[in-house]
Design brief:
The chain is 55% helix and 4% strand. By secondary structure, the chain is mainly alpha-helical. Residues 1-69 form the GST N-terminal domain.
């Protein structure tokens, strides 16, 4: 999002292995002790503003810059609803699938949790695929914060979590084409290769 908007920024890596998310400095930005979090030194009224939660950050940056969020009320609310879809569904479900497929959960004998998150991830991918069947981007024919919110999650599902075969990603052809289009954007390419940012 920072690359798409052109705003100046500094990346600060938070090492969860060292507990940096629990330091007083980080908790002053995000009392929930999670990433992402931002500090805008030039917030409303010229005052610093700390924000956490990806959806809130995307919404704030879109409003601040007038980019990636339609001005018309219908397009605006359609975009926001897809951001909420990611925040409430895609993010948590793909993340839980990753835990049970790649991390500690994979050694659990009871596979019902993994099966549940696979099924829900497939359902969400099906919703996305049907929506993208007749469009390039989630809302109004233009790249928006709705797309930004989901690109990393889908990329990680099939890449970092190595779950493409598990969810049958090949059958979600419209999602795959959307992902390729999004990842080909120059700003996205710059964003995913920032040293020390995301893994």
């Amino acid at each position: 999002m920072m690359e798409e908007t052109g705003l100046p920024y500094e990346v600060h890596r938070i090492d969860f292995g060292k507990g940096e998310q629990r330091t007083p400095e980080f908790l002053s930005l995000n009392p929930n002790g999670k990433i992402p979090a931002i500090l805008d030194p030039n917030g409303p009224g010229g005052e610093p503003l700390a924000l956490f939660e990806s959806g809130a950050i995307l919404h704030y940056l879109a409003e601040k810059t007038g980019k990636l969020l339609p001005a018309d009320p219908t397009g605006r609310w359609e975009t926001i609803q897809w951001v909420y879809f990611q925040v409430g569904g895609v993010g948590p479900m793909f993340g839980q699938l990753g835990f049970f497929h790649k991390f500690e959960g994979r050694s659990w004998n009871d596979k019902r949790a993994l099966d549940r998150y696979v099924a829900e991830s497939q359902r969400l991918l099906g919703v996305m695929d049907a929506h993208l069947a007749s469009r390039d981007w989630f809302v109004g024919g233009a790249f928006s914060i709705a797309d930004v919110s989901m690109l990393g999650m889908v990329r990680n599902l099939i890449g970092f979590y190595d779950a493409a075969a598990l969810v049958g990603f090949d059958r979600y052809t419209h999602v795959a084409r959307w992902l390729d289009r999004g990842l080909a954007r120059p700003a996205v390419q710059r964003g995913v290769t920032i040293p020390g940012a995301a893994g």
